[in-house]
Write a structure and sequence with these properties.
The strands form 2 sheets. The protein has a 6-stranded mixed beta sheet, with no helix packed on it. Strands 1-3-8-7 form a 4-stranded antiparallel beta sheet, with no helix packed on it. It is mostly beta strands and 114 residues long. The model has no long low-confidence stretch (mean pLDDT 97). The radius of gyration is 13 Å and the shape is globular. Helix content is 0%, strand content 47%.
Amino acid sequence: QVQLVESGGGLVQPGGSLRLSCAASGFAFRTYTMSWYRQPPRKERELVATISTTGGTPWYASAVKDRFTISRDNTKNTVYLQMNSLKPEDTAVYYCRRWGTNDWGQGTQVTVSS
């Protein structure tokens, strides 16, 4: 059974940082591209970043490029999202997804507010 469990969300002030983690199980993690999405309040879910099986050639949405970094540890079956210089508009529920499937985590809330 595929499981994706996000953690690391919380309340942070503008300009602060958070590191999200997504622990995967139930499939061959190292053979899948992984991704992070977010859903801001009252908005559609949007793709934030993707990372290939080996960690090369990450892709970022323009809104987070140069502030967020996606990475993975295939020995720990975990994908990360380092978020720096956070802005109020980054407030959202953040989800990880096994790329190309309908496998999603339960989400973790990130709130950026002073």
